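Progress narrative, work stream C.
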Amino acid sequence: MRLVDVTDLNSEMVLAKPIFVNGNAYLNEGATGLDAYIKSFLRVGITSVYVNDEVSEDVIIQDAISDKTRLRCKDALRASFKHVQDNFSIDLGVIETPLNQLLDEIVMNKDVQINLTDINAVDDYTFGHCVSTAVYATLMGLDQGYSSEKITELGQGAILHDVGKLLIDPLLLNKEGKLTPEEMKEIQKHAEYSYEILKKCDELSDGARDIAFEHHERMNGTGYPRKKRGYQISAFGRLVAVADVYDALSSDRCYRRKWPNNWIVDYLTRNSGTAFDEEMVASLLKRIAVYPNGSEVLMSDGTRAIVVKQNQQTPLRPVVRVFKDSEGKICPFKLVDMMETLSVTVVASQLELEREDAKTANYHTIIRR
């Protein structure tokens, strides 16, 4: 299995993971003739999908939770957010069972290294983002040694951290162009709105509510809404700030394409100890593959390869399957363990080659929402 840009789909590829739009099945696993769906995928904002083909045969891409649980959590959030729109309060009971299933699965898979990207249509982004943020946050919380009670509080706060976006004009949230200073201020209100909504839910702890208020605060005081610094920010807030940023940058948005994983790792590392809590960044990076399984990479000898599996102690030197020669032509497949073949290195990921211009983009624009 591997992740491919929808514009690169061809008739020989088979869909490896089902596609859902607004909670409804859009295309089932096993679908063929995928090149015929390119325009319809792009129309709903899906820019990449997982496929099975000869190149990616036997490549395993792990996730911390099952597809069924991820979908149930998204559906529960959709219902819970509808309750907020009608009553300005959260019905925690709607998400309790699927969230507990998510937490149980992560505890069982606590040592997994995440290689998989959740595929979300534009209209499903907020639900997918909240679930993925909860997954990353829970893995980080386990690494921090949190008790089961604290893991539950953390999961609740993380999965609900962006509920305040319901009170922001969706046209503003999905604006493709640059935001004006006034629009940026309006977007930033979602943190306070989220907190005010969660404050009305007696079942939530103060720690869970603080996540909503603090997930955009930064250690150096450059965040919002209160420009808190350092340990003025709660441990939950510092943790979810990192999980939130990672998922935001690894997801396609209407106003920018997702970043390659190695850029995100580099960004978090460079800002560790300044914008982000150093310990929290370290907890996340233990669980993130720099070059995920199933991703295409350019090698230093000019060949192209698919990452087959990780060498976890040396994340920059995975096991790869070379499938294109230095001239870009399909060649006989060759498995290369980069820990044994030290003469080659990864030069760039496919996304990195396609999005060179994104390196100079303003970070506040890239993750403005």
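Work stream C, second folded protein:
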Amino acid sequence: MLVTTYKIEKNLAAKKVNICVGDQITLAEAEKFDKEFGSTLSSIDASSFELHIDSTNMKVLTPDLAVKLGGAMGLYKQAGFKKIVIELSQSTVLKMQVSRLVREAGLTNTEVVTK
């Protein structure tokens, strides 16, 4: 799926929230994402849902976007999803960045995988 910024879909039957992240999201788009994600959360019981994040097209994070993504990780933790899976490309640097943000957010139910 070609996504330039992001796409959020909820699948009630499968009890999954799927997020697809494009190659690089701007700060303005990150703000929009926060609002849309909050709206999605208000319509589900996150503790019975899995969150799947397809970030295979994402590029290495700039410092300002790393801060925004760290904030998103905090939202994911606060929501209390049953399980979180983050899919990345084979970029070692990006995997290190995302894994660090996951640890800093205290997400213990998160799996960072490469495709």
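The mean pLDDT is 89. No further action is required on this item.
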